[in-house]
Amino acid sequence: MDHTFARPMPVKTPTTAPFWDGLAEHRVVIQYSPSSQSYVFYPRVRAPRTLADDLVWREISGMGTLYTYTVARRPVGPHFADAVPQLLAIVEWDEGPRFSTELVNVEPADIVIGMRVRPVFCDYPDHGVTLLRYEPVA
């Protein structure tokens, strides 16, 4: 009996579409709030703190620093049974916001909090989505 499960994939909404469309072009595009003079992530309709309707989309480098991580040696769900260990991470972008992601192309023993990381664009054409992962800067 086959017990494989299709992995859940993100669903694009009108609010998040510019982020997903940017990833499809291998660009990191997030919101910027002139009223708070800061970048914003996750995508939303109004700026945090100021609640201003001034959010604009801007491309960022995608470069960042590893803020924290965990090595998930047991699958987080049946959809991920073939994906362990999973290197779950939070990356702090150079522009400020933090992003929940996975680390790739690195051994768990080589991961160091504070290390520089760069974007890896993982295309899933069957699902029409590109996911943003991170790897250490060589």
Brief synopsis:
The chain is mainly beta and 138 residues long. The protein has one helix spanning 17-24; strands spanning 28-33, 38-40, 56-60, 64-72, 86-93, 98-102, 116-124, 129-136.
Q: How would you describe what is shown here?
A:
- By secondary structure, the protein is mainly beta.
- The chain folds into two domains: 13-60, no CATH class; 62-138, OB fold (Dihydrolipoamide Acetyltransferase, E2P) (Beta Barrel).
- The chain has one helix at residues 17-24; strands at residues 28-33, 38-40, 56-60, 64-72, 86-93, 98-102, 116-124, 129-136.
- A five-stranded antiparallel sheet has the order 6-5-4-7-8. Strands 2-1-3 form a three-stranded antiparallel sheet.
- The radius of gyration is 16 Å and the shape is globular.
- The N and C termini lie far apart (43 Å).
- The model has no long low-confidence stretch (mean pLDDT 92).
Which features characterize this protein?
mainly beta, three-stranded antiparallel sheet, ChsH2 C-terminal OB-fold domain-containing protein, Thioester_dehydratase-like, globular, five-stranded antiparallel sheet, 6% helix, OB fold (Dihydrolipoamide Acetyltransferase, E2P), ChsH2_C, NA-bd_OB-fold, 1 helix
